[in-house]
Write a structure and sequence with these properties.
Rossmann fold, alpha/beta, 45% helix, 2 domains, 16% strand
Length: 253
Amino acid sequence: MPTTDQRVAIVTGAARGIGAATAVRLAAQGRAVAVLDLDEDACADTVGRIREAGGTATAVGCDVSDEAAAQAAVARVADELGAPVILVNNAGVLRDNLLFKMSTTDWDTVLGVHLRGAFLMSRATQKHMVDAGWGRIVNLSSSSALGNRGQVNYSAAKAGMQGFTKTLAVELGKFGVTANAVAPGFIATDMTKATADRVGMGFEEFKTAAAGQIPVRRVGEPEDVAGAIAFFTDDASGFVSGQVLYVAGGPLD
């Protein structure tokens, strides 16, 4: 049976990085949070941080690209915490390569986790939101949606997230459910470190070079993105839907 009367949020890819920062931020705002990631054990740190601060959280292992697993994860959250009415589709992977080197598996994996995963999780949670007459879906896009060398799969997925978001906003708005997207620029995470490794640069050097191209002259931190996501999950944002917010330290071309 559910253990809380708080609004329940699911954050995917929440073991580390932006997802972890978002889970912690939402918990600090009084949400009960399901910390979801491929490896349930990897969620322990995020769950521990939330509980140590007096919040409510549970770890859930799930491959969001697997239909049965996504449905089972949402059902488990509803049983353990209560009906989820906030969903942050943050889970993602990188399989960077130039087009002529990219394998079909690398394409399918990235599109599967980002787009298929967001679809499956949104479809599984929307009934709870519709029944409640209130819901918030936040999808993670990226500045790479505008195009980025070596990321044709990731760029396509992140651009797709924007169209996905806008359509959810149209379909679900009459039920009290909003859908918005946050598109980070350069954020210091394990994923951007992987990009640095791919291009043969040390991470500190990579961050310094990136900061030089950003108007605010620094790279972003996961907490910068978490703040934007938190806004979209709040009651105060109820008249904001179908929007894409770039969190990139300045305007993008």
